[in-house]
Design the sequence.
């Protein structure tokens, strides 16, 4: 039996562990699931005879090293900042390692040692980063191999609620870490290039600079810019490309309504509100509006942000109960972002029967024999249930498939890497199709970044 | 002769040094002006027989200590972060010290030693902080001594161009550090209390939440909130007050136009623009607007920020040349804020003949014998010329007056302090009147923070 050590039994590990357990007989695997909370690990194993749950505190050197030493390969599903200690043990005991996280500087710095020992440290092999890398590079490489020149690359991903569970005005529920949703886009201007021009969007305008995405049979969506699209120039070798834009997908109308929170200052995570525990939701809303005791909080907000009588934004705000004068914030010394998160969690938490959805879209513009062309590719994945969510499948399956292929020597080029080489993405994308993770492609006229251009 | 050491001969030291030189005969003073650049110090002294210019690098311990040791009292007009070394020497050689800067934690920590040696370390005794403290505390103490209870305190200061030199559409020129103007309000939400309610304004709304101030014969102005008004509760002993608000004064219409830069993202100082040196002013403006090659930068901006055809904001933008396609930014790897500063400095730099102006206003609301009352106080100072500016007078004269009064033993309570006790503010405010720095007071009906309240 070959031992696969999976560190971290959080929600996103379910499909990953199921994949490995399902293959454990044919592939002769034992799956060791290690977590601080043994119950989480046990739940994942569900008494499978080839599974084993162990307690592991990643900061306890002795037990961590023992677990790594006994394994044949290691998967870390911990938050990115916890990978490094595991990575060093993997080098010490000569084990390959797989993570779904962005390569940190510290991780990158291990490359030389990893190469010297012939190990594969595969990172960024979840959904985003992960499936986005692989599905984009597959088409980029194909376009280049035909002798064409890339002009445009745009890429969009969204974690949303599935259409069958989509029953609020925002068309949104928390299918992932709520905090990340509340503070999304903060920390600096969004940067990208369009037709060779650098463009910058400050945070407070981000949610009003969306564009529409047409995912055909899956419907129309909207996208807002991610913070740094420019780093993908060097990663994908797109130094010459005129348009480079990465974004986040939401259902249409979400961002314009979310902008209300941004404008009010409710997403701010940089200061705490003194008396927050005694505030009602209404008090919280009012704290961002001018003092004016003879006007209602409602009218002050409508006037401040110029929300028309018949604007659906208003109904969205009412749905969240932000004017409720009995519900208390309860949280002590909370930041506005923490309070907003609490208000949203009352309404946007998935119910037992709810399913989630992942959508992804790429656009590739290129010039071939003096003719400009464009390919769009897109995918949709719906979760099975609250355990095998679309998020868990799209994050976990690539990790699991990569792990087995490294273990079996099918992926073998050593080094600290991400899945942008054919050796890696071809077999993984092929196998993902068996699990319903498939991209559709369409050829469309190349419009550059100006789809509404009408001459004259 | 008693030696007064003035460290730092920047622009704001002119009136301070003139005051001391003018008094040097009658008060038997020698004024030692120390600066890294001897020319700056010499210019200030202008061959006055009781003045002496010396070179001093504040980080050179030996010469700094020697200068402090030989002095009878020390004034530091350096930026606040450079005071500490001087302060420690002042303790070592038992010299009192005066600065116009906010008391840092490190400065405050010296209090015990300063008291033990019977020294006076007077800080925050310039304009703002300085004259604002003294003029406010004088009235606050008076109100309290009459047995009344403070309900409201609002305080506003502005450094502006004098009416006779006010000849651009913004009614603004740089009379102080331009960088501080460009990044003003950044770094966190503005916080204050109005009628017992905490209020928060995020940066991107700050310039649209102004209010009008009536300074009577000096005209009407607008005020925007400073970042942290709340710290004045403990400093002034206003824990019970219902409204506490501090703000910055501009001419009416400035903030609404400045908001264009905020909304575009031009005041951002957190990232650099790669190709900034080759950009034109027009390119810079365009980098914050959506790509759309068949529309003009002008129309894109008008549409994005909904600027009407006949809005004076547009003329203000044109006046600054932000659509100019030949003027180059030149600065390399500059932040948006640095580029904006350069564009503004083309137009807002004071000319030789220009004069500046300081305006300040306080509002005091209180309850006396069950009746609510209000006092407003306000002042205006116009600069004499480009040397003895209103800024130099209002910052430097209180420093100089305090220094002499400490030297003469009229101000003697030891400790690290700011000018909020009667012993300090009474004689200084009285003497400032001789230099035209006078407050006018008016009684107005108490309206609380709701001046437009109409019942029904």
Sequence:
């Amino acid at each position: 039996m070959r031992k696969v050590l999976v560190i971290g039994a959080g929600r996103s590990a379910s499909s990953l562990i199921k994949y490995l357990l399902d293959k454990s007989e044919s592939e002769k695997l034992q799956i060791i699931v290690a977590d601080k909370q043994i119950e989480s690990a046990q739940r994942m194993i569900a008494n499978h005879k080839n599974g084993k749950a162990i307690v592991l505190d990643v900061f306890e050197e002795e037990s961590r090293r023992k677990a790594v030493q006994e394994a044949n390969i290691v998967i870390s599903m911990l938050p990115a900042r916890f990978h490094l200690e595991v990575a060093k043990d993997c080098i010490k005991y000569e084990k390959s390692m797989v993570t779904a996280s962005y390569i940190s500087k510290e991780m990158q710095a291990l490359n030389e040692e990893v190469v010297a020992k012939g190990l594969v440290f595969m990172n960024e092999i979840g959904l985003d980063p992960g499936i986005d890398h692989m599905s984009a590079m597959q088409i980029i490489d194909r376009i280049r191999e035909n002798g064409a020149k890339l002009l445009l690359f745009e890429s969009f991903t969204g974690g949303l609620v599935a259409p069958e569970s989509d029953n609020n005005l925002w068309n949104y529920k928390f299918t992932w870490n709520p905090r990340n949703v509340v503070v999304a886009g903060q920390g600096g201007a969004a940067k990208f290039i369009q037709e060779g021009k650098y463009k910058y969007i400050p945070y407070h305008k981000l949610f009003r600079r969306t564009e529409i995405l047409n995912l055909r049979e899956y419907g129309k969506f909207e996208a807002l810019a991610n913070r740094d699209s420019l780093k993908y120039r060097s990663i994908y070798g797109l130094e010459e490309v005129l348009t480079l834009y990465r974004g986040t997908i939401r259902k249409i109308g979400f961002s314009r309504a979310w902008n209300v929170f941004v404008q009010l200052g409710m997403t701010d995570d940089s200061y705490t509100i003194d008396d927050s525990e005694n505030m009602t939701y209404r008090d919280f809303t009012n704290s961002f509006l001018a003092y004016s005791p003879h006007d209602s909080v409602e009218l002050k907000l409508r006037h401040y942000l110029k929300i028309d009588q018949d604007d659906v934004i208003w109904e969205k705000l009412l749905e969240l109960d932000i004017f409720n004068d009995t519900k208390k914030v309860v949280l002590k010394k909370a930041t506005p972002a923490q309070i907003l998160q609490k208000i949203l969690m009352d309404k946007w938490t998935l119910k037992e029967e709810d399913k989630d959805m992942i959508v992804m879209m790429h656009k590739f513009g290129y010039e071939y024999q003096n003719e400009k062309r464009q390919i769009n590719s897109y995918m949709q994945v719906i979760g099975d249930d609250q355990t095998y969510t679309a998020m868990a499948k799209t994050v976990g399956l690539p990790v699991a498939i990569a792990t087995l292929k490294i273990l079996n020597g099918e992926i073998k080029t050593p080094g600290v890497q991400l899945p942008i080489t054919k050796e890696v993405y071809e077999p993984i994308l092929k196998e993902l199709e068996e699990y319903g993770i498939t991209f559709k492609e369409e050829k469309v006229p190349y419009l550059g970044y100006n789809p509404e251009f009408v001459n004259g």
The first strand of chain A starts at residue 2 and ends at 7.
